[in-house]
UniProtKB/TrEMBL annotation:
Lineage: Bacteria, Bacillati, Bacillota, Bacilli, Bacillales
KW Nucleotidyltransferase (keyword) present: no
Domain Aminoglycoside phosphotransferase: residue ranges: 15-225
InterPro entries with a match to the protein in the record: Aminoglycoside_PTrfase, CcrZ_PhaseVar_Mediator, Kinase-like_dom_sf
Keywords: Transferase
Protein name per UniProt: Phosphotransferase
Amino acid sequence: MEHFYQLGWTLDSAGGASGEAYMAEQDGHKLFLKRNSSPFLAALSAEGIVPKLVWTKRIETGEVVTAQHWKNGRALEQEEMNSERVALLLRKIHGSKHLSSMLKKLEMKPMFPSMLLAKINSSLSRQVMAHRVVRKALTYLDEHMPVLDKAFYTVCHGDVNHNNWLLSEQDELFLVDWEGAMIADPAIDIGMILYTYIKPEDWPQWLRQYGIDDSLDLRKRMKWYTVIQAIAMVEWYEEKNRYQDMNYWLVFLDDVLSRNRFI
């Protein structure tokens, strides 16, 4: 990012796993800069789902840098994930034909359950496979694979944990960090929110806020996608040698498998 230093900007890392995000400041003006963002960012900005995109530039290295308005704010607290605002914004995302059309223009294909399962099966290390609950979960996934008409697939975020929800000082709610965006069954996002943050007795109310009815079919799909995402989290933390976090997700995985045994 030497280009921006030369133009008189100060840059500070904005965190994130990629290390490619920065808070840039010049004469009191702040921007959120990111290298190699997807063209999908423009569509998200137009829908008001992420802070407004200011410009996109290609710099001397050939990299593309995007700039968004810097928003002072905070991540949502876990208990705030039960709010109607979260449900409504997620519904807006899943129902957006504009976002779906943009991902299709970027030649993104639907992510079917069989593809997700094949991907996880091919990536798991022997260390992860050594856990009984992981082997049990893989058997469950193989035996309960959901079937859903492709017409119901929508734009999904893929990582809806509370740290990716930004509440600005102006009380604006955004969903950020879209590197894992996909065209998939919306239950992949809904399930992780419900299993992670919402008490089971409150699921029907949250789903009504989102705009759909509770059903056995939906619960089966949510459980399946939550199980596969939990395995992916176990794998990620094992690779990072973050064993305390890995153990949290092993316990979470076991809990999800134990709940609603009839599905």
